[in-house]
Amino acid sequence: MSQHWTVRACCCGLQAAILILDFSQPSTKFRQETKYQIQGTMLSKSPALSIISSLCFFWFLIFSFPSCSALETNATDYEALMAFKSHLLLQENSILATNWSSTAHFCSWLGVKCLNKRVIGLQLSGLALQGQLSSDIANMSHLVEIDLSSNDLGGVLPSELGFLQRLRILNVTKNSLQGRIPENLSRCGELQELDLSYNFIAGSIPEELGRLRNLRQLAVDHNNLTGRIPASLGNFSKLEYFYLHENDLVGEIPVELGKLASVTVIALRNNNHTGSIPDSIFNISTMQVMDLSINGLSGRLPDSLGSRLPSLQRLFLDSNRITGRIPAFLSNASKLTHLFLTENDLSGNIPDEFCELQNLEWFEFEYNQISGGIPYSLFNITSLEILKTRHNYLSGGLPHDLGNWLPNLQEIFLSHNQFSGEIPPSICNATKLTSLEASNNSFNGPVPMMLGNLVELEHLNLQVNLLVNNPLSTHLDFFDSLVNCRNLQYLVLDSNPLNGIIPDSVGNLSSNLKVLTAISCKLKGGIPHSIGNLSSLNFLGLSNNNLQGKVPSSFAGLQNLERIYLTGNKLEGTVPTEFCSIQVLGILHLGENSFSGSIPLCFQNLTELREISLAANSLNSTVPLGFWDLVKVEGVNLSRNQLHGTLPMELGNLKAVNIMDLSSNDFSGEIPNSVGSLQNLLTLDMSRNKFQGPIPNSLSNLIVIEFLDLSLNELSGGIPPSLGSLLDLKYLNLSFNMLQGEIPTTGVFTNITSEDLMGNPNLCGAPKLNFPLCSARAPGQRKKSSLVLKITIPIAATLLVLIGLLVWLSLSRKKHLKNPTGSDSLPVGHQGISYYELLRATESFCESNLLGKGSSGMVYKADLSDGTVAAIKVFNMEYTRALQNFDVECEVLSKVRHRNLVKIISVCSNMDFKAMALEFMPNGSLDKWLHFESNSLSLVQRLDIVIDVAMAIEYLHHDYMIPIVHCDLKPSNVLLDEDMTAHVADFGIAKILAQDEELIRTKTLGTIGYIAPEFGLDGHVSTKVDVYSFGILLLETFTGKRPTDDMFREGLSLHQWVNRSFPGALKEVLDPNLVYDLNSGKEGVTKKQSQVGDLLMPLIHVALLCLKDLPEERIDMRGIGVELKKIRAQLKHSCGRSQTPKY
């Protein structure tokens, strides 16, 4: 090395005299592509310096110093190139190994550019080079360009690069470089382009880089840079492109960046910037693209924004915390083509002045609080291609000529607003439309008849509106038109009162159709045989209609069908054997129909089946033995049939089962001991059968079970005390059997009620539950009295129960007559509801309306008299904390208002009855979707759900006037509405902190597995308790593992299991269903992004930040919300979910 620098020294006079030469070709980045393309013009400029005089002087000096020139040529550049090559890992037959040979002069080597036999350029882009970047490269003192982009070079950037005084272009993008940015680069005073993007460079940006006064492009994006943006970067007076996005930079954006007077692109996307956007940045009149999205920026946008940025074409501010109104004068930025304001806290109306943005192509402002109507003038922007308004408070109707005014419209998303009126038929004239989503509004009138004009349509979602069928037809005529949409993949019509017959033309829909759902649409008639033509169909949902007749045999042709939902119709006949030929079938819901006969023997061939429901039919056979070999099944519901016979030991083969409901049948014999091997079981309901014999001791092996109902059978013997060791068991019902002996006193039995044990007159040992103390009598005495007891006790008990029931009904009737609305304790702002209304709405609390039950009460579905569908939570007044839970939940839900918190509708409350009417969530809990629904949640759905939960808890902790701690955050308390939006529920043990209170103590604990360490040990409650629970919820959502899974024993926890795989082996702990979907491309992930662990690493990182042992070290919910929104935005960008890229 020293020898080379000696050579350089001997020619220092020559080097000082030689003028820096310019290339006649543009640089790699400018030549090949730019990161932001604007209106079809590449934002690039090529250096255009004259080199004639420099060449003349150069030759003069060469001839003046011949020996020095020869020495440098032979000894310096050649040796530097060979040293560079020696640091590469080259295969024998690689291009560089064969081409860089001593048989030819190095100036003829591939990628080597020379001038007068001196190396001035090294252009080796895209050669898959591996190895490290040798510091000897700095010995080629005449280098003007280094382009090593798109290789796989590792190691660090040599600090010796700073000695290259002539260097104008340094491009090492898309490699695997690590380390830090060398401060010495600041000595390359002629540097114009510095591109270090798409590497693994860490550390902070050196302050010294601000000395590069000739820099035109700085690209350090897609690295692991940390720290703040140095204020010195504002010294780049010639800078045109400023790329710092996709790093971990923090702090406020420096005011000094406003001095970048020549800049056209500023990209700071996906960092951790906070504070307001500096006003100075809006003074850069040359700015064409500003991307500040996915940060934590706050404050308001200046009213004069548009006037001060006359050249602005693309503005990306999505996924921040910007407040206030959308500035009306943004309309002065007349060249604007892309405006992204999604996921902020913007309010007010859409400015009428936006009609002046006649070049606007993409406008999105989803997930804000924008209200009012969309100005009709906005629909006069004929250039508009994409309009996204989801999750706001927009109202009013759409203009009748919408489709005529927007001929270039490709995507329109209007869901989750308050739009009303008809969907204008003219929308069918927007023939370039690929996506039309208008769900969760109040649109009414008929579905447009000419949707078939939309020949490019791929996605049509009209669910949860008031749309009807053509009143002149009994058939759904719009299907006939949709036949012309040959690209249609998703057709979602759920929860509209269509009230029609599915036409035969359904079978002529697009051969690409993957999803067809019309749940709760009042459909009638039969399922057309032609539906079997939809060969690509993956998801068919026709539940909760009035469909009749038999399931067509053509279902056998639907070989890609993974999910079938036909629950709640009037279908009849035997259960079709045609389902057995669908090898990929994962979910089969046929409940609440009129199927009869037997369960098909061939169901044993459905080896991918994860969930099966045949509940509430008229099946009257035994269960085929092969049924119990469906080892992947997670949910089984055979309840409310006439199934009979005994249960075989093979039942224990269902190792994956989480829910098993065999209730209300005629099963007999003993419960097999093998039931104890179902160690993932959470719910087991065997009630209302004829089971005999003892309760198996093996039930104590069901260590995660939460719900066990064995009532109304003929079980005998004692209650196994080991049931008290089941820590997660919250509900146990053993009533109306022939059990005897002492009632255990541990575990679930500490809160068990008399109703859960009644009808077992030989039980004893619980005086508080009206069971006598157990007497210690001799065996002979017991024999003599046993016959008498067997006769008299059942009779006496039955009489007592009947008398008690009559007295209770009489007293209840008197009380309810005195207090018909049941409103002695109502939350403020909510009208009471009468007990009689609840009886009517739930059909006297009929079991068919039961949604769930636990130790604290039961939840029923109810159709209230005003047409509202509600969930009625009836509190178990025998439960010791029932009154306190009711009061707390009323207090919390009556005060808070947030879109992701479950809403209270009304209450019914008197001395002996407490109930609460809550908004109904038709898609159940997150827990059900994670553990009982097969392949039902995509990556994006899971991410949307956890963000919804984070927003709800953030509101409780930070945005409500007094902090509220939920204290029991877990998937079963996260409910999902029609559109899979999450709502946090169950505030029974929530804690309200005082104004200045950060920590309180409590003896009421949450659920094991989700409890923060300080909560479980000392009863300390702070907002960081919910943060910890949220971290567990995150891990469970993306690993599919409960914290109480059987594998987490002997000191190993879910947290530790994931942490030891982070970050290098994440794929091993992720939910296999999620990994499969990502690897198979179902999520739209490209090949490079199919490294699943890398894709989800940021999510798991957030979870681990939540799970720090010390509360003060955990991230808060506001920070969690920012991080998750960034991840979602990055994922949407990476997976290409939008048809048109941002830039």
TrEMBL record:
Subcellular location: Cell membrane
Gene3D superfamilies assigned: Phosphorylase Kinase, domain 1 (3.30.200.20), Ribonuclease Inhibitor (3.80.10.10), Transferase(Phosphotransferase) domain 1 (1.10.510.10)
GO molecular function, one term: receptor serine/threonine kinase binding
GO cellular component, one term: plasma membrane
Record's keyword annotation contains ATP-binding: yes
Protein topology in the membrane: Single-pass type I membrane protein
Domain of life: Eukaryota
InterPro entries per the UniProt record, alphabetical: Kinase-like_dom_sf (IPR011009), Leu-rich_rpt (IPR001611), Leu-rich_rpt_typical-subtyp (IPR003591), LRR_dom_sf (IPR032675), LRR_N_plant-typ (IPR013210), Plant_LRR-RLKs (IPR050647), Prot_kinase_dom (IPR000719), Protein_kinase_ATP_BS (IPR017441)
Ranges for domain Protein kinase: 845-1131
Binding of ATP, residues: K873
Spans through the membrane: 48-65, 787-811
Enzyme Commission no: 2.7.11.1
The keyword Nuclease belongs to this UniProt entry's keyword annotation: no
SUPFAM superfamilies in UniProt: L domain-like, Protein kinase-like (PK-like)
One Pfam family recorded for the sequence: LRRNT_2
Biological processes annotated in GO: defense response; detection of stimulus; response to other organism
Reactions it catalyzes: L-seryl-[protein] + ATP = O-phospho-L-seryl-[protein] + ADP + H(+); L-threonyl-[protein] + ATP = O-phospho-L-threonyl-[protein] + ADP + H(+)
Family: Belongs to the protein kinase superfamily. Ser/Thr protein kinase family.
Full protein name: non-specific serine/threonine protein kinase
Organism: Sesamum angolense
Lineage: Eukaryota, Viridiplantae, Streptophyta, Embryophyta, Tracheophyta
